[in-house]
Amino acid sequence: MQTTMKRRTLLRSSLTASAGLAGVLMSKTPPLMAQERELKLITFSHFVPASDEELKRQLEEYGKQAGVKTRMDRVAHLQLPAVYASEVQGQKGHDLVALRVGEPHLYAKHLVELDDLVDKIGQRAGGWTDVVAGRGPEGHYRGIPWFFISFPIAIRTDLVAELGETLPDTWDDVHRVGKKLKAKGNPVGIQLAHSADSNHILRGIIWSWGGKLVEDDGKTVAINSKETVEAYKFVKALYQDCMTEEVLAWDDRNNNVCLNSGKCGMILNPTSAYNSARKDNALVPGTERPIHQVINHIMPPEGPAGRHMSAANQTLGIWKWSPLQDVAKGFLDFHFQKEQQEKHLAASLGYNQPFLSAFGMHPIYASNPKYYFAPYIGWYTHAPGWPGPPTGATDRVWNKFVIPDTMAAHATGKMDAEKAVQSAEAQIKRIYRRTG
Fold first, then answer.
1. What pLDDT digit, counting tens, does each position of 275-334 carry?
2. What pLDDT shows up at residue 4?
3. Boundaries of CATH 3.40.190.10 in the chain?
C-alpha cells in the first residue's frame, strides 16, 4: 500500500514539474525572470535630447530605490497616437504614459485617477498655473500637468536691421517685414502641413482674429464666423507674400533647419531651433559668425482680437492595466520633487516650461537674454480646444489636421475662405458627433 501511494505521489509530482517546465519553455522565461518587475514609460522623442537623457536617469534612479527594473521608450510625437490606440485596444503595454492635447480626456476610462497626487505635488510647489491640463471629462485628473512648450517668434535680428525695420509686434508687422525678408531671399517659415507646429500656430492666428473652433463649453462647434474667415484670408496673404511653397510639405523639423541654415528670416517655434544652432555652431552663410548670435525670440504677434498662441501641453499618466500602479505613482511623486524638476528643466535648456508656480521664474530664464520671453508667454498661451478644455474630440480634430489642411487649401487657391471654413466646420462637427 505504501509503495502504491509513493508511486502516485511521485507521478503527481512529476506531472506538476512537467507542467511547470512546459510553461517555462512555452514562455521562454526562467522562473526568476518571470518574477522580476519592470516599470515601463513611453514618451515622445524630445527635441532637446538631453531632456530625455535626464528623464531616463531619474527613472533608473527611482527604479533602484524601488527595487524594480525600468525601461523608457521614445517615439516620434506624430506616431504616438497610433501606439496609444494599439495599447488601449490590447489593454497592455507601458505603465507610465506621456500625454498631450486631449488625450487625458480621450483615454480617461483607461487612465488612473491622480487627484490626490496632483494636490500633493501642487501644494509643495506653490500650486499650478493651469487648472485644465490633465483633466478628464468628469473633472478628475487623468494626467499630472508636466510642462508646456511655447511658440514665440524666432527671428534673424541682423536681417531685420539690414532692412531698416523693427522687430514685429503684430501680425500685420509680420506680414510687412515678411514681404521684405522674402524679397531679400529669406522667407518666413510657417508650416501649412501635417505637423504639430502648424496645428499650434494656425490656431493662434484664428484666436488672434477673434475666431474659435468651439465655444467655452467644449462641445459647440463655432469655427464658422466672419472672424475665422478673416484669419484664413490673412494666412493666404502671408503664404503668398512672405513664404514659399515648401512649407506645404514641412514637418516639425524643417522650419528649424530653414532658420539655422540661414535661409529663413523668421519662424514661430520653441527654443529648440536656437539651441540647435548654438550646439552645432551653425554659421551665418558666407561668414564666420555663429548664427545663434543673431537669432532672438519675441512674443507671438498680436492680432485684431489680442495676442494668443497655442501651446503643447504635456501631462504624465498611468494606464489602468499597469500591474505596478503604486510603483508608477511613486515615480511621479519622485520626478515632481524640486531637485528632479530643477534638473529636468535645466537639461531641456528651458524648453520645458513647468506648470508648477515655483518654477515660473526659474533662474535659467535669466541666464540668457534669448529666453527673456519664457516667464511671460504663458499669459498669452492656451491649450488646444480653447476657450473650452481640451477634449477627446479636440484630440481627434488635431490628429486629422483639419485646420492645416483647410488653411492650405485656401492659401493655394483651391478654396475660397468661406468654403474652406465651411469645410473645416463640417469635418469638426462630424468628429464631435462621433466622439460624443
1. 999 999 999 999 999 999 999 999 999 999 999 999 999 999 999 999 999 999 999 999
2. 42
3. 38-149+312-374, 153-310+401-435
pTM of the predicted structure, to 2 decimals: 0.89
* Fold annotation for 153-310+401-435: D-Maltodextrin-Binding Protein; domain 2 (3.40.190)
7: pLDDT strictly greater than 60 = no
CATH class name, domain 38-149+312-374: alpha beta
Quick: pLDDT tens for 387-430.
Answer: 999 999 999 999 999 999 999 999 999 999 999 999 999 999 99
Ramachandran class of 166: left when φ > 0, alpha when ψ lies in -120 to 50, beta otherwise? beta
Average pLDDT of the residues in 380-389: 94
